[in-house]
Amino acid sequence: MDLLHAKLHALLQHWGIAPQATGWVEQLLLLAAILLAAYTADFICRRFFVEGIRRITRRTKATWDDILFNDRVLNHLCHIIPPIIIYALLPVAFPNQAGLLSFLLRICMIYIIAVVLRFVNVLLSVLFELTSNKESLRDKPLKGVFQIAKVGLFFIGAILIVGILIDKSPLHLIAGLGASAAVLMLVFKDTITGFVSGIQLAAYDMLRPGDWITMEKYGANGIVVDVTLNTVKVRNWDNTITTIPPYALVSDSFQNWRGMRESGGRRIKRFINIDMDSVQFCTPEMLVQFSRMPLIQEYIANTQTKQLTNLGIFRIYLEKYIENLPDANIELVHMVRQLQPTETGIPLEIYFFCKEKEWIAYERVQAEVFDHILAIAPQFSLRIFQLPSGSDLRNLQKASDISGN
């Protein structure tokens, strides 16, 4: 190093520079040479290293290397080299100015930390994209995990930078922060609880992006579109967005319809009220009529000795109808049963699981089933109970007036 300074000093004197000015001119030339070396290293890295990696990734059939080694990641990686070169060569330019050299080294180290943080931040974003594209991890709430990793990364970077500025060891700062842990927990309460809740949601597989959830307390009824550190976003069926704090999903109750989607069917459970006055024993003529119906021919033939009712045969008919319904999963529980009679009639409940799980198709199947039930009931001499309407009362009054006359 001394030999370099001596030769440069002699060269400057040979160029005719005054002896009293050779010192600062020498420093400027060395500093310019250092900056030029850093720029050259950055140019070579981006021109040859990045281009070489790009060519290699293009030749492979895999897609993960194209994402991991994209230009953004590699360029940020190359940006780390120049400040390292400057930091290593600065003592050459300022060998006898300890104060100025210490100041410049601190600034350079802070810049190195900032560049490294940017690179790691970009790398984490790319890793999140890779994991999100992986089939086995696509439905996991990983966004909150990567967010907390970024928060921790910048927290550590901030401690390092403050330590450099005040010329203290980062360990001393961390020890000092321990005394103010209560304040930090209060400030980052939502972040901490959100992170812990996110871990619980992921560990117990309680929630995934794409799940249909219902949480009446927060007015949520729709598809989970995003799970972050502080919020869970739900797109409701009316296309509004509801945001729920993750800890609410852990502490409160919510309904997840994933089990239904992964099972063999979506349940249909609905009843109609049969007018009690229309229930009667079957006459021979009624049995002959019922025996012509393909679904209950065998049942009628095997139970002629029993005293049958039109409601009982209707219930058997509906059971056979469900068993022969293409959209019904008869491997799961299915039945037609009577509930407790009320003042509005005898509730006849239809219970089965529909193979169609998507909302529109499911509702279509349910509507078709009950359309058929309402249309077929009169053929069993049964009436569906409904409260009198205004037209019913007017017709009754009209009939009363006619009979009075």
Short summary of the structure?
This protein is α+β, with helices and mostly antiparallel strands and 405 residues long. The protein is built from 17 helices and eight strands.
Describe the structure.
- By secondary structure, the protein is α+β, with helices and mostly antiparallel strands.
- The protein has 17 helices and eight strands.
- The protein has helices at 2-14, 22-59, 64-68, 71-78, 81-93, 98-133, 143-165, 170-179, 181-187, 189-203, 246-251, 258-262, 284-291, 297-302, 310-323, 359-376, 390-404, and strands at residues 212-215, 220-227, 232-236, 241-244, 255-256, 266-274, 335-338, 346-354.
- A five-stranded antiparallel β-sheet has the order 4-3-2-1-5.
- Strand 1 and strand 2 (220-227) form a beta hairpin.
- The longest helix has 38 residues, at 22-59.
- The protein is elongated.
- It starts with a helix and ends with a helix.
Order of helices and strands: HHHHHHHHHHEEEEHEHEHHHEEHH
Which consecutive residue ranges, at least 5 long each, have pLDDT under 50? none
Tell me the distance between the termini: 130 Å
Rough shape? elongated
- If strands are numbered along the chain, what order do they take across the biggest sheet? 4-3-2-1-5
Beta-strand fraction estimate: 5-15%
Relative helix content: 55-70%
Label the structural class.
alpha+beta
Report the major sheet.
5 strands, antiparallel
Rg computed from alpha carbons, rounded to a whole number of angstroms: 40 Å
Count of DSSP-assigned helices: 17
Q: Say what oligomer this is.
A: single chain
For the secondary structure, the number of strands is: 8
- Average the pLDDT over all residues and give the rounded result: 81
